[in-house]
Amino acid sequence: xxxxxxxxxxxxxxxxxxxxxxxxxxxxxxxxxxxxxxxxxxxxxxxxxxxxxxxxxxxxxxxxxxxxxxxxxxxxxxxxxxxxxxxxxxxxxxxxxxxxxxxxxxxxxxxxxxxxxxxxxxxxxxxxxxxxxxxxxxxxxxxxxxxxxxxxxxxxxxxxxxxxxxxxxxxxxxxxxxxxxxxxxxxxxxxxxxxxxxxxxxxxxxxxxxxxxxxxxxxxxxxxxxxxxxxxxxxxxxxxxxxxxxxxxxxxxxxxxxxxxxxxxxxxxxxxx
Length: 273
Known about the structure:
The protein has about 270 residues and is α/β, with parallel strands linked by helices. The chain has 10 helices and 6 strands. About 45% of the residues lie in helices and about 10% in strands.
């Protein structure tokens, strides 16, 4: 069998932009991409977190620039793209759309502005980032986009939690990912999503620290390991998707491995189409 080494996950010489990476899952993803060798741009709004996030990424031995942008606004996304091309004139290899917000309210009482805020960041923002940076990737002929969706886009949370806007937005991100993946795959740009479960982040910290919270009990009771996830546990998935090039995955496997795999030449070529 082929000798699989960590070199297969090297991102040395690659460039990446991660939204909402000032803290939490986004910061861990940015640090993970940096540890693999990628130069990083962090885009977000929490200016008070910028210095710490930048230092954490630079500590991995790569360059890091932190830019302010509200991804729910088209003008901000277009300006972010212009800034990114100045920093990475040869283009962007990896885009991770992690920025997200949540506001709780009963569906029958949810103000329109709350709905629009959550959907605006989580879904419209992801669309704007994919469309804007995906265009450049399509021109390049390669690129990897990873959208951070949520288990809440696949299932209704227990109790139920009063977050119809959040759940709907994340379900939209999943379908958006499928649509763009289908449209762009043959043009060299891969689009994938990860769907984290309940994770210990600033968004969930208050609830997780509340004694005897029935929602937390439900979360843990429905989780086989009996615990919430940690942000750094998302890094491996993103690294896998970020490393894969806009070409057939079998190209990464040497012929001896394919022979041991039991694949004949006709089957291999069929998989490569």
